[in-house]
Each structure stands twice: as structure tokens, then as C-alpha cells.
Write a structure and sequence with these properties.
single chain; alpha/beta; five-stranded parallel β-sheet; 5 helices; globular
């Protein structure tokens, strides 16, 4: 079995990873940890942006990459075959794209439970993935647990 676990590297990540670890151990599953970095700022676009902005983005991605690798190593130490992926783009789209590309059997991600007004204005990544995914999705509530 293959499981894709979406992580945002916030405090919610720990809650999501605990659930994913338990599931992976019971199902003897392979795990892909996926963190999606923010898309490039509009003012940078496809052209080379100001050096300061490029340096900031590179530093941020490097830090996120190190955090993601550490999380993957913890799962490996628990006996779970784990691969860490860091991509850039729109969160919902990238989760669905990577799930299809990897041929996963399940997606695990957290829900921050930010309230109806915010969800109406901004949408919910977990709800979007839940409705559009071609495989089962486990949504882990994280708000009350952090």
C-alpha cells in the first residue's frame, strides 16, 4: 500500500504524522511525505526576480527541505519506508497531482478547522482534496489537538 501524507510543517504536522505512522505500520505501507511550498510571488513570475527575493525563497526552501527530511527520517526509524517530497505550487492541485503521479492508495492530511467564514472566503484544502481525489482520503482534525 502507498500513502501520501500532506504536511504543512506547522504544529499540526505532528498530529497528522502520528495518525499516518499508526496507519502505515498497521498496513505495512510505503509513505510519501509531501510539503508544498508557496508558489512564486506574482511580481517575480517566470522571469528572474530581484536577487534578495531569490535568496529569500532559496533559504526558505532549504529550511523546509531540512525539516521534511528530518520528519521522513523519524518515520524510517520507526520501520516505515518513507520518501520526502518538496514541491512548489497551489496546495490542493499539487496534492492531487502528486497522488495521481505516485499512484497512491490513500491520502492523509490535516484539517485546521478554521471556521465557516474563513472557509467560505478562502476555501479548504482538505475539503477540496476530499471531493476531488480518486482514492480514499483521511482527514485528521488538528485544531483541538495542538
Amino acid at each position: 500500500m502507498k500513502i501520501l501524507v500532506g504536511v504543512d510543517l506547522t504544529a499540526a504536522t505532528e498530529v497528522v504524522l502520528k495518525q499516518a505512522e499508526q496507519l502505515a505500520l498497521k498496513l505495512e505501507a510505503e509513505v510519501w511525505l509531501l510539503h508544498i511550498g508557496e508558489p512564486e510571488p506574482d511580481f517575480v513570475g517566470y522571469e528572474i526576480g530581484p536577487q534578495g527575493e531569490r535568496d529569500y525563497i532559496a533559504k526558505k526552501f532549504h529550511q523546509e527541505h531540512r525539516q521534511l527530511q528530518a520528519l521522513a527520517e523519524n518515520l524510517r526509524c520507526a520501520g516505515i519506508a518513507t520518501t520526502a517530497l518538496l514541491v512548489q505550487g497551489a496546495t490542493e492541485e499539487m496534492l492531487l497531482t502528486e497522488a495521481e503521479k505516485l499512484g497512491v492508495d490513500m491520502i492523509v492530511l490535516g484539517s485546521h478547522g478554521r471556521g465557516a467564514v474563513r472557509q467560505l472566503m478562502l476555501g479548504s484544502t482538505s475539503a477540496g482534496v476530499l471531493h476531488r481525489a480518486k482514492c480514499p482520503v483521511l482527514v485528521v482534525p488538528t485544531r483541538s489537538r495542538i
